[in-house]
Amino acid sequence: MKKNALVLVVLLFLGIFLGSCNGKSEEVPPTEIPSEAPLPSPTPAPDRVVLVTGDNPDSWMLQQATSTLQGLAQNSGLEFETRTNIQSGEITSDMKVLVFLSHPQNLGSLSNGASGSQFIVISDEDWTPSSNVTIIQSDTKYQYFMAGYASVMLAENFRSGALLSVENGDFNTAYKNGAKYFCGICNALISPLNVYPITRELSASSAPTDWIAAFEEIRLNSILYVFVPPAAYSADLFNYIAQSGAYVIGVSAPPAEAQAVWAGTFLSDGISPITDIWNDVLAGNGGKTVFASLYLADTQNGFISSGKQQLLQQVISDIQAGRIYPLDPLSQ
């Protein structure tokens, strides 16, 4: 009996154990929800260099500025764009450098309203730059002074003349002072016994026929070299000058129709100094004034000998060293 009872107890516990095992639910591990991969951040657009040309840029200066700034922008990892004009509200934070080919009247408000941008301004004004402005001083009076000096130096018996714009009083004075600086009273020693240079002043808006008539007046005095301002440029005038046998001196690059009679151009180069100051500007170091380069170009016809070019370069060096002032050259 005891043996049977023991068997029953064992069977009972075994039944209970097996029942509890069959009733136990299998645990399912929780499903992991994959997390979304973070989206890549958009690559910010590079900062920009903006060339502001003004309404009527000099063609030579525009070409030089465009090629120079495109190269500098590319080497600095910046984009390049050109605009005619720009207002304060249009300057955005990605405009790292703005270059103006002429002095904007609202430069103060432009630079004050965009303290994070650097400004490079080619200017003929006496203007004290703020910390984010670099002024490249370019004074057209020096070009006219050299044109006057060269015209009487190159011409036998000083026989030179000039067509001048009546609106440009200081420029005209600088031209005449340049001639005076070379020879004082430039009085020819053989007939016609004139004092040179002989000049005629017209409004800049005068028609080509008026400029031709003015040139005809001075041509009668055996003119060998003539200064022609940019306002007077026209194919008709240059064709007429070519028939006279005179050669032309200018302060702006010659048009195609003037090439055959062109002796040389006195250029003020405000673009080359940009390369020298570029790293300082990118580093935010403004507040400086530097000077444009003055030099003689377009001499390929050989109307100015290499020896006389050297003499002219010496006067240019004196000007840039501050030893000659075009409105009062004998005062230094």
Secondary structure topology:
Layout: H1 2-23, E1 48-52, H2 59-75, E2 79-83, E3 95-100, H3 107-112, E4 118-123, E5 133-137, H4 140-154, E6 160-165, H5 169-183, E7 186-187, E8 195-196, E9 198-202, H6 208-219, E10 225-227, H7 235-244, E11 247-250, E12 262-269, H8 272-282, E13 288-291, E14 293-297, H9 306-320
Parallel strand pairs: 1-2, 1-3, 3-4, 4-5, 5-13, 6-9, 6-10, 10-11, 11-12
Antiparallel strand pairs: 7-8, 12-14
Structure notes:
By secondary structure, the chain is an alpha/beta fold. Helices cover 37% and strands 20% of the residues. It is built from nine helices and 14 strands. It has helices at 2-23, 59-75, 107-112, 140-154, 169-183, 208-219, 235-244, 272-282, 306-320, and strands spanning 48-52, 79-83, 95-100, 118-123, 133-137, 160-165, 186-187, 195-196, 198-202, 225-227, 247-250, 262-269, 288-291, 293-297. Helix 4 packs antiparallel against helix 9 and helix 6 (208-219) runs parallel beside helix 7. The longest helix has 22 residues, at 2-23. The model has no long low-confidence stretch (mean pLDDT 89).
Strand-residue fraction?
15-25%
Q: Order of strands side by side in the largest beta sheet? A: 2-1-3-4-5-13
User: How many strand segments?
Assistant: 14
Oligomer type: single chain
Shape: elongated
Outline of the structure:
With 332 residues, this protein is α/β, with parallel strands linked by helices. 37% of the residues lie in helices and 20% in strands.
Structural key phrases:
alpha/beta; 6-stranded parallel beta sheet; elongated; 332 residues; 14 strands; 37% helix; 9 helices; 6-stranded mixed beta sheet
